[in-house]
Design a protein that fits this description.
alpha+beta, Protein Transport Mog1p, Chain A, 5-stranded antiparallel beta sheet, 3 helices, 12 strands, 37% strand, disordered N terminus
């Protein structure tokens, strides 16, 4: 899935309103599972790949949109993106991710006709795993409300997992960074399908 799709999805949903969070012990509304532990989304057999995962939002207010894996979390856009890593495989996980980012930047350069030069930072998700956090400013004239795009990519098995957001005017890049890192660090992966009722 191309990042351009994320850009268009995020821009399309700038005016989305949040739905009220349910107060019962358990409800499922618009793909969001609400429990006493917080909000989450379960994805089983992602696009027939056998990849099963849960996005955990904790006590944040999370609202699904009508776009797959695109959510409003405490008024911040969050989209999950999964791509096969095989086309970007390199000597190290960091080089694999950097190759993917370079590929996406090149695609964006061609697709939108503006130079996109991402700023990339290696961040730690855990003691044993790093990720690439990358941003680029929204090209002039594309959207006056969005100042930059922010992405976080990491490897899980044969997949590149991506979380992305758009920073709108008045939003804190630090808050978006925290959302992406917290969500990535709390993701649960399973070789078998995850329950969708808890």
């Amino acid at each position: 899935m191309r990042i351009l799709a994320l850009v268009l999805c995020l821009l399309t949903y700038a005016g989305c309103a949040q739905a009220q969070q349910e107060s019962t012990v358990y409800t499922t509304t618009e793909g969001i599972i609400q429990t006493a532990a917080g909000a989450s989304v379960v994805v089983n057999d992602y696009k027939g790949t056998g990849l099963n995962f849960r996005l955990n939002f904790g006590q944040a207010t999370a609202v699904a949109t009508d776009r797959p894996l695109l959510y409003l979390v405490n008024d911040l856009m969050l989209q999950a993106i999964v791509v096969p890593a095989e086309h970007f495989q390199a000597a190290t996980p960091q080089q694999t991710l950097q190759g993917y980012i370079a590929h996406e930047a090149e695609y964006l350069n061609e697709a939108i006709g503006h130079p996109v030069v991402p700023k990339v930072e290696t961040v730690r998700l855990s003691k044993t795993q790093t990720a690439e956090l990358w941003t680029y400013p929204m090209p002039a004239g594309m959207n006056e409300e969005v100042t930059q795009q922010i992405f976080l990519n990491f490897l899980h098995g044969e997949f590149i997992i991506g979380l992305g957001s758009a920073q709108y005017k008045g939003q804190s890049p630090a808050a978006i960074r925290t959302l992406l890192l917290t969500t990535a660090r709390s993701m649960v992966f399973s070789p078998s399908p995850l329950p969708t009722d808890k």
